[in-house]
């Protein structure tokens, strides 16, 4: 468990590279919608690597800037809660559509999550931090956004999406955000947590 707490984002990067190689080697045989969904999965893995490893100081932004924490190294987000929340998002929420690629609303919900990352990182958090960049912004704009647009364009070009799909995807996305992010942080927060972030993960936002 200690190994996973320290290196889950690094393992994600390795998995992402392996997936990219797999998709590239089988580009002509994998159904295009599956390829896009695989790359959507890679997008969240890269996003998490940017947030928690390099540059990696998103926990400092989250705890200090957004929540004005007096103990940003452990509250409200801590190393263990970050791992649990992000692993579930990546390996359940983003991989589930690959089991059912014809269920478009399942694939659309992660796309909406990617767009949400742009709003959260690029606008909300940056305004509060008074910056134009913090970990998560780059992959949200340059990876999540183009892959999301690609997916939407594909399902429209092939007449795969309906109004009902949009409704279900919006509901599923909202429920996932509420349970995994909003309530997930609440359920797992602990002011006395021993699972503290490293100095790198706090960046300039460590407790003075």
Automatic annotation (TrEMBL):
InterPro entries to which the protein is assigned, alphabetical: HXXEE (IPR025671)
Organism: Paenibacillus agri
Keywords carried by this UniProt record: Membrane, Transmembrane, Transmembrane helix
Protein name according to UniProt: HXXEE domain-containing protein
Membrane-spanning segments: 7-25, 82-100, 106-124, 136-154, 166-182
């Amino acid at each position: 468990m200690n190994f996973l707490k320290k290196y889950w984002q690094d393992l994600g990067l390795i998995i992402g590279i392996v997936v990219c190689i797999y998709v590239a080697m089988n580009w002509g045989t994998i159904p295009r919608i599956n390829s896009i969904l695989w790359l959507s999965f890679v997008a969240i893995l890269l996003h998490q690597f940017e947030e928690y490893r390099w540059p990696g100081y998103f926990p400092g932004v989250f705890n200090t800037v957004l929540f004005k924490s007096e103990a940003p190294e452990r509250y409200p987000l801590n190393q263990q809660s970050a791992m649990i929340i992000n692993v579930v998002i990546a390996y359940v929420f983003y991989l589930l559509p690959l089991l059912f690629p014809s269920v478009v609303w399942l694939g659309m919900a992660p796309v909406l999550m990617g767009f949400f990352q742009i709003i959260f990182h690029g606008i909300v958090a940056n305004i509060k931090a008074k910056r134009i960049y913090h970990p998560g912004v780059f992959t949200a704009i340059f990876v999540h956004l183009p892959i999301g647009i690609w997916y939407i364009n594909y399902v429209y070009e092939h007449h795969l999406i309906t109004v009902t799909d949009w409704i279900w995807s919006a509901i599923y996305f909202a429920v996932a955000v509420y349970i995994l992010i909003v309530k997930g942080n609440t359920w797992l927060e602990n002011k006395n947590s021993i699972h503290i972030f490293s100095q790198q993960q706090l960046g300039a936002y460590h407790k003075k």
